[in-house]
Amino acid sequence: MSTLVTGIAELVTNDPSHGEGPSGVVPDAAVVVDGGRVAWVGAMRRAPAADVRVDVDGRAVVPGFVDSHTHLVFGGDRAGEFEARMAGRPYDGGGIASTVADTRAAGDDALSVRLHRLVAEARAQGTTTVEVKSGYGLSVADEARSLRLARTVTTETTFLGAHVVPPDHAGRREQYVDLVTGPMLAACVPHARWVDVFCEPASPHAFDADEARTVLNAGAAAGLGLRVHANQLSAGPGALLAVELGAASADHCTYLTAADVDALAGSETTATLLPGVEFSTRSPYPDARRLLDAGVQVALATDCNPGSCFTTSMPFCIALAVREMAMTPAEAVRAATFGGAKALRRSDIGHLGIGALADLAVVDAPSYRHIAYRPGVPLVRTLELPVRPAGAPGSA
Ligand SMILES: [Zn+2]
Questions:
Q1: How many CB atoms lie within 10 A of CB 205?
Q2: Could you list the residue range(s) of the whole structural domain that residue 335 is in?
Q3: Mean pLDDT in the chain?
Q4: pLDDT tens string 88-122
Q5: Strand partners, 4
């Protein structure tokens, strides 16, 4: 069954062959979706016929957001820590241990209900692809359980056993890295596509360059793709390590040296910026302009987690990117869609070129610019297209 989406005041395709600029913007547009994929894109007046018609009545349409960095499997929350931080206590990642305790204590059902609720919350704000990390279990059984649950909502699952050294391994870092790269990795590989590490020598809880390299090499040897929590709290070794090992993404990139920027610019590693974290920890924002001007592939993601940034809202992150990081609205929307797809090494999402997955998000405004222009207003939603009724000819 094909669907013709009409009444699109402004369509962002991220495919320059369809329209103006890198965002491939088409005014007064229509899209045909067939078999869950984009089959035709162009001016409304030239639109072909389809089985079903959906009219969005003068609204803008953008590719669904690709949130390439979240931590959605966890127990408890840290509202108290947030309140204390706003009163002046600095953030160093130490609160992760309290979420580890709450996650281990939670039943599968409680974790799953929370996870599905957060994914629905993201989807209601235009997110159509979400990456989900483990990292609050930090035991063989609890990490494997977190990833098994994450797999129920996405194929983009990431093993983050090297989030922090858990309290039960305090003072035994080497042993913990052995556990992560040995039995924990073996138990998690069946449920994971990626491996990630919190590489941050400035935090006593996280991992230095040698430890991070050991974790990433073990993950790669087990067939996982690489991602790195890099340069969040200091100009540490994470970004260079990500580039050296061919990681898909270096995430945070808040403190970068000129050498880091040069290395990222000459690489296939996306710099994923997470401005919700700087907002929620009252920290300096990453220098997005420097990265964009150097030609680095930039993505925006939420980092949704109970400690440093508890938002599922990609529109909020776009608004922050424009207001606080001097990205243009077009650059920010592109980073939240096409950039996220690059960070996940996916070519079937993050754009609305022919053959892309039909992940469309509707903006309740005539232009994508309103996403940043009207912060805090729930303007964006995922477009739910009609599906073939059960029992109709050809339905599976
Ligand atoms: Zn994170």
A1: 18
A2: 65-343
A3: 96
A4: 888 776 788 899 999 999 999 999 999 999 999 99
A5: 32, 53
What CATH number does residue 328 fall under? 3.20.20.140
CA of 280 to the centre of ligand 1 (A): 13
- Up-side HSE of residue 180: CA atoms within 13 Å toward CB? 33
Distance from CA of residue 56 to its chain's centroid?
Answer: 27
Cα–Cα distance between 396 and 392 in angstroms, integer? 9
Q: How confident is the model at residue 386 (pLDDT cuts 50, 70, 90)?
A: confident
pTM (2 d.p.):
0.96
CA 295 to centroid of ligand 1, rounded, Å: 24
Assess whether 34 and 102 both reside in one domain: no
Distance CA 319, CA 336 (A): 11
Give residues whose Cβ lies within 5 Å of ion ligand 1: 303
Domain count, the chain: 2
- Shared domain for 37 and 78, answered yes or no, is no
Q: Answer yes or no: do 38 and 169 share one domain.
A: no
Half-sphere exposure of 226 (CA within 13 A, CB side): 26
